[in-house]
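HOLO CASE FILE
Compound: alpha-L-arabinofuranose
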Amino acid sequence: MRKRLLAGLALAGAIALATTGCSGSASGSTGSSTAGGGGAAHKVITVGFAQTGSESGWRAANTQSMKDAFSEANGFKLIFNAADNKQEAQIAAVRSFINQGVDAIVIAPITVDGWDDVLKEAKAAKIPVILEDRTINVSDPSLYAAWVGDDFKKEGQTAGEWAKKTATSPTNMVVLEGTTGSAPALDRATGFTAGSAGAPITTLASQTGNFTRADGKTVMEGFLQKYGNKIQMLFAQNDDMGLGALDAITAAGLTPGKDIKIVTIDATHDGLQALADGKFNYVVECNPLLGPQVSDLVKKVVAGQSVPKSQVATDQSFTQDQAKTALPSRKY
Ligand code: AHR
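Model generated. Tokens follow.
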């Protein structure tokens, strides 16, 4: 059976890919230019980045962080693709990067499954693959060089612990899940269950809102039509779905943050604003500013240096008062 392969894995695969990283561009048309004035010129590193899409505020911040880090000034040529959260489109983008002979491929995988074939094609073409943000299930960990992202399970657990503390009496909850089959949706659900274990919480309904505001609103409208004011708590697996749900809750004549206690994940500026305004009750952070770490990894892998197989970003969580303090200097 396949297992999610992350922390503690041997570096052999990373090194094997790293040592062959540059040759992927030898026959391609994209990897032959140079950069750097004055002294010795450095080869421009051509990177194909397969982003999930543009579903959320978190994603916008992540895309910007990646574009900033993979700039020409930093020695990169970035080929960017956003796949509109369609797995087939993302795999097609990766195949196109292989055909273009890029020096390295970065993927923010939409779902955990379905990656073996295209990663084997990248390996055969001697192009190293770095994963950012989301994790995958693979048969062989050497199919990617490294992963950098957030600990989704811990995020869910932190949200679950807050729910447990808040539910001092029997509480009916609804859940807005992220993209079906994605690592954050799966791991946040697992973490929330662990964190809230033993709490008197009944889950009335749990359905995907695809990490978007529009779907968060639509699905919450459905929950409210079915369960009305029986709903006392909402766990939205990201800020955007929670923000969409606010409209539905208000339209139903209920007060978000009071009639329905709300916990979300991401801590984007809009999410923290809703928290500071008393509409959300607790927000767990998921740091999207991964570009500098990913570009550093790519440089090292392409240069044949060994890199850690996994790197986890640091996240915090926010109460309403903490959101008020954090908002003025919030970067995303
Ligand atoms: O993979 C990270 C998740 O993807 C974020 O929590 C969500 O907002 C985004 O779309």
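CASE NOTES: Residues 152-286 form a domain with the Rossmann fold fold (CATH 3.40.50.2300). Residues 1-33, 35-40 have pLDDT under 50 and may be disordered.
CLOSED: yes
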